[in-house]
């Protein structure tokens, strides 16, 4: 039976969108709360971030999603370098795989939110296939490269050494730091553009162990395909500070006036 929508309810729904998107029913859709940009890739919105956390809270069996909303908005902040701590080093310090120090307490308090966000990033369509061999599912993160990879590729990454790759399981109970989550946000597609450019071969899950290892050494250790770093974009908005000369001047100048 088709549902009849009251136009007033529809208008209200548009205004209350984030709240509507946050209901568990809508959260069950994998791309809920995301819109498709010009590139066709899904981009999460603020509502998606919220609904993702709420959905995770509901999945985790929390009595009320409200408890997520009530949590402090601030992320744990990095501790200053040891030299500035004046010997007062917190007894319980936690160091992320990327080398940032945090108070373990802060990281623990934020754990539920951090895991909810990690899973939200991991479930994005661009992160559902291994960044290296395109297999599913992606169960490990290589945090220093911002890639989600399959179990098999993760084991090759481990063999490369932590100076090349810093793997971290996505499915366990590991604590995640804000710096690590930040590194994972751009996702596999962005990381592969930076690591592979246009010319590198793309692997499929049936690649042999030897060929896979060789590819990963080329990709991550030798950076064989990484395009040269592009210079920063010219700051377009700044040009408004210096307006071009009025057009009339040029117009009359062309007649020698
Ligand atoms: C983190 O703490 C360790 C141990 O105190 C220290 O050696 C290291 O330099 C700190 N790292 C940063 C980035 O401050």
TrEMBL record:
Residues 37-46 have a biased composition (Low complexity). Residues 1-22 form the signal peptide. GO terms for molecular function: GTPase activator activity; zinc ion binding. PROSITE patterns: ARFGAP (PS50115). SMART domains: ArfGap. GO terms for cellular component: cytoplasm. Keywords: Metal-binding, Signal, Zinc, Zinc-finger. Residues 27-46, 60-81, 227-257 are annotated as: Disordered. Residues 115-233 form the Arf-GAP domain. Pfam families: ArfGap. PANTHER family: FI20236P1 (PTHR45705). This is Arf-GAP domain-containing protein. It comes from Pelagomonas calceolata.
């Amino acid at each position: 039976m088709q549902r009849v929508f009251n136009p007033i309810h529809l208008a209200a729904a548009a205004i209350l969108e984030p709240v509507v998107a946050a209901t568990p029913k809508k959260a069950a859709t994998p791309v809920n709360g995301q819109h498709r940009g010009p590139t066709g890739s899904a981009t999460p919105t603020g509502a998606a971030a919220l609904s993702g956390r709420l959905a995770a809270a509901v999945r985790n069996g929390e009595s009320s999603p409200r408890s997520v909303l009530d949590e402090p908005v601030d992320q744990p902040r990095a501790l200053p370098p040891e030299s500035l701590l004046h010997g007062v080093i917190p007894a319980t310090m936690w160091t992320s795989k990327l080398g940032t120090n945090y108070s373990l307490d802060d990281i623990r308090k934020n754990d539920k939110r951090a895991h909810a966000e990690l899973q939200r990033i991991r479930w994005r369509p661009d992160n559902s296939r291994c960044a290296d061999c395109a297999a599913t599912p992606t169960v490990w993160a290589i945090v220093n490269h911002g890639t989600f990879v399959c179990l098999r590729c993760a084991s090759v990454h481990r063999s490369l050494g932590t100076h090349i790759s810093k793997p971290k399981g996505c499915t366990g109970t590991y604590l995640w730091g804000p710096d690590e989550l930040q590194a994972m946000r751009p996702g596999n597609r962005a990381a592969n553009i930076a690591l592979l450019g246009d010319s590198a071969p793309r692997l499929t899950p049936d690649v042999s162990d030897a060929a896979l290892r060789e590819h990963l050494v080329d990709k991550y250790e030798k950076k064989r395909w990484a395009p040269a770093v592009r210079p920063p974009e010219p700051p377009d908005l700044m040009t408004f500070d210096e307006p071009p000369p009025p057009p009339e001047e040029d117009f009359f100048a062309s007649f020698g006036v």
